[in-house]
Design a protein that fits this description.
With 145 residues, the chain is α+β, with helices and mostly antiparallel strands. It has 2 helices and 9 strands, in the order ββαββββαβββ.
Amino acid sequence: MKINIHFEGLNHEFTVKDDAAVFDLKVQVQEKLGFLAANQRLFMDGSTMLYDYNKLQSYGIVDDTTLSLRYKILVHGRPNRRGISKVYELFVHEYNTVANLKQMLNFEYGIDIGIIKLKKGNDNLEDSRKIWDCDIRPGCHLRMI
């Protein structure tokens, strides 16, 4: 069965057995696109997340279906008095903006987005920029200040 994974503005084609599990497809994505299966989330119709050990067919996925890929980035919070910072996981699309990341932090973790800025290395990230344009790739680490 042929499955398309939409990522980086392109459809990447994969061939899996008819009885393949979602994880089997993630392993192929890892081999082709180079990031860990654990750092991937696959979605059908943009909103239905596929769980690793379910069969693709259990979701009604047939030949020539296109799935979307989200990948994990890590955002480090401000250090506490002991110098330890909490780490927040976000699963994002390459077309999300920095403002979208802040909204996700608010929605998923209750962080007040009005008081934070995000940084990658020494660079402040502007809310209007797309994360892919800011070189925020799978496994990337950001900081909140």
